[in-house]
C-alpha cells in the first residue's frame, strides 16, 4: 500500500511544471523600455485673409429651366355647314314678244312669202301654214285644204298688241301665182293680182308694184283689223 502511494507521488512530480529557479543576486537588473516620444503640438488654425481682399464670390446656381408650356389645345373642329339644298328651278321668264318660246315666230305687221317662212331659223312647216291659211276668215279652203298653191301664198304676221314686236299668228293675205321677196324692203308680195278665192277679209290684194287690189290698206302702211288681232300691214 505504501508502495502505491510512492508511485503516485512520483508520477505527480513528473507531471508537475518545472519552476524557474529564483534569480540570483548576481544577474543585472532588466533595462526598462524607452519612454514614448511626446505628442506633437496642435496645428495652428489657418490665418484668414486680410479684410482688404474681397472674399471669393459665392457661386450662384444656374436658374432652373422653366417648365415647358403645354401646347394650346386645338379648338374643336367646327362641323361644316349643311350643303344648301338645290332651289327649285326658276321658270324661264315669259317671252317679251308674247310668242311661245321654241315655236316659229314672225315679225308683227310684216308680209311673208310661204317659202321665206319655211326657210327661217325656226321654220314653219306646211301643216302650220295650211292651218293658218284655212283659219283666215273667208279663205277658200274646200274640205280643209288650201285652194291655191300653199308654197306660193302670201301671209301677214298679226299680233294682239300695238307695241308687240314679234308673234306667232299668221293669216293668209293672198294666194299668189308667184310670191316675191325682193328689195328694197324684202317684204313678201305677189307678182300678179291675187288668185280667185285666195284672199282673206280685208286682204284681197297684195301685189306690190302698185297693185290695184290692195283691199283695206294703202301702200304706206295702214292698220288692218283681223278679228281681234291688229298689226301694221306693209306691202
Automatic annotation (TrEMBL):
Keywords assigned by UniProt, alphabetized: Signal
Ranges of Pro residues composition bias in the record: 19-97
Protein name according to UniProt: Filamentous hemagglutinin
Chain segments carrying region Disordered: 16-100, 205-235
Superkingdom, natural source: Eukaryota
Species for this entry: Fusarium zealandicum
Segments of skewed composition (Basic and acidic residues): 226-235
Cleavable signal peptide: 1-16
